[in-house]
Amino acid sequence: MADGLGYFFAALGGFLAPATLFNIGWATLLGMTVGMLPGLTATLGVALLTTLTFRMGASDAILILVCMYVGAIYGGSRSAILLNIPGTPANAASALDGFPLARAGRAGEALGLATVGSFCGSFIGMLMLALVAPVLAEFALKFGSTEFFWLAVFGIVISGRLTSVDDPLKGWIAGVLGLLVAMVGQEGIHAYQRFSYGSTDLAGGFGLLPALVGAFGFAEVLQVMKNLKYETVRGASDRILPRLREVAQRTRTIVRSGLIGTFMGLLPGVGEDMGAWASYAAARRASKTPEEYGKGSLEGLIASETGNNAAVPGAIIPVLTLAVPGSAPAAVLLAAMFIHGVRPGPLIMIEFPSFIFEVVAMVFVASVAILVLGLLLTRPLLLVLRVSREKLMPVVFVLCTVGSFAIASRVFDIRVMLGFGILGFFLREMKYPMAPFVLGIVLGDILDKNFRRGMVLSDGSLEPFFTRPISAVLATITIGVIVLAIPPVRRLIGSLVRRIPFGRSNP
Amino acid sequence: MGRKIGLRPGPGLRADFLFGLVLVALGIAVAFESWHMPRLTELGVHPMTAPGLVPGLLGLVTALLGGILTTRSARTGDDSIAGVVGSDSRNLSRQAGRFALTLVLCLAYAVVLVGRVEFALATGLFVFSFIVLFEWNSERDFSGHVRAVVFASVEAVIVAALVTVVFERIFLVRLP
């Protein structure tokens, strides 16, 4: 731990250079802007910035991406409060109480408290990142092929289950479709070109970044332009700086939401949205005034904003230690780390011992940046929300086109972006969640290689997949999650335990 | 499980039912292709590392999930096209029109213009036509139209110049 603190302060000292401070400032502001604008998500922001920064040094580029990520998840609360439209899906729970507060003329108060909540969430998540990641990395050294196989399956199953609470089947379909996408191109053991049909472009597989820019950028452009209504905003006139006492009164809610948010972030492909919903549900259950929730409860707002921002460092934990993303934007961050020559995974504490703590320091400066910029620049930033979609969306699409081309300079990648955009649009229209789809694209290779390696090691027997201790635990949880989602099983269990009240995490 | 909505699902609206069938077809096709991939046994590799193993299994899972989706939809009559709730057919066709216009403009830019025309010019043209077409309002008088066109041109020029400069000069990225 002393080493960790040393690395942390060394990294922090490095960030004090004027050029770096400048990068932190603009990246966080850009992130907040992206987060605020409905239709632009954290995933898209991080993906586009990855394409812009891939010629920079690893440390600068990843710092910029972390600032964008933290800034965007925070920025989404602005539009959730003022417009009742979550700027990113992670802020949906914030709209429940934020918007009623704004309508009651307390927009500034809500914005200020959301800012403090986001800062606290990031901070708690950051502490957990520093504490949990090194331990998890060491534990992950015990993982063999069968464990990584189950981890991939578990990721898809839990992500599909939690991002599509009403209909897990659709979450799982999205995840399996992502896995299928990952099967295209050269496979990792014999370099055989699957589903390529002689095309050199297809032999390279679909790039994660063009696919994400399509599914989160172009699909959103289509979605936003299709809708008949689009709200722009007026402003906040009351006090924005929150009183210390108001925050101190809610310490319990903040800590609870921070821990829940981090845990939700840590689960593969679950991420910020569920971080917010689960924290919100837990806060309501523990509240002395649950009837205020949904009508303008400051406690509810702070719970969801703390929860979603805590999920950001939470989602980075598995990225660093297992190379498995905790959320869709974290998947882009993972891809960016590979681009910059950092190899996250169980060996990270051995190969790059300082890196985890550098990322902790990055999250720290990004959190401070949202606190300072958020409280100082709330009013001027709201001007962004006055831009009409007719003027904004063509610019977004231009960026998607340039961004998908930039990394490899391949026209094929623009086509990939367009294809995934159209696919993503229709999947979303039919209520398929995107996070398991993204996770599937990332985990496809891990699942494929480790299943086959495991089968070779066991000489064709499935037994070790169920008998090795860690595998057995992962397998049990995975199968349990699937079985419990089957309606007749749920009804049976429901009738057995009817007396115990179960809270729903997604109201 | 699925959402019940007030409308009776008519033909063409049964998204789940049809998409389930698509998934079944896709899954079977993937499994079939995977089965016919070379097993590479002539190279002396372990049969369990055959390239088609995992995609084949995933194909079967896809078909299974698609089958469940179709069966469920047929049994419950659920439908999941978003936006159907509460919107009449006029709104639906307006939405479809806006969607189609966006798609056509974006494809014209990304597939036809980019790569053939100078990047800045292509971008300017795209931004200009996007704004003008979507902001077109027949109730405006002549000066209103002129103002809209001028604003669109200004934004088009600024965006084209800014994107080109920022990407090429500051971030040193190659443009299509």
Give your account of this protein's structure.
The complex is a heterodimer of chains A (507) and B (176). In chain A, helix 1 (2-14) crosses helix 17 and helix 5 (92-103) packs antiparallel against helix 6. In chain A, strand 1 and strand 2 form a beta hairpin. Chain A has a two-stranded antiparallel sheet. Chain A is 73% helix and 1% strand. Mean pLDDT of chain A is 90; it is low at 503-507. Chain A has one domain. Chain A has 507 residues and is mostly helical. With 176 residues, chain B is mostly helical. Chain B has two domains: 15-76; 89-170. Helix content of chain B is 66%, strand content 0%. Chain B has five helices and no strands. The longest helix of chain B has 29 residues, at 142-170. Chain B is flat, with a radius of gyration of 25 Å. Chain B starts with 14 loop residues before the first helix and ends in a 6-residue tail after the last helix. At the A-B interface, helix 3, helix 8, helix 10, helix 19 and helix 20 of A face helix 1, helix 2, helix 3, helix 4 and helix 5 of B.
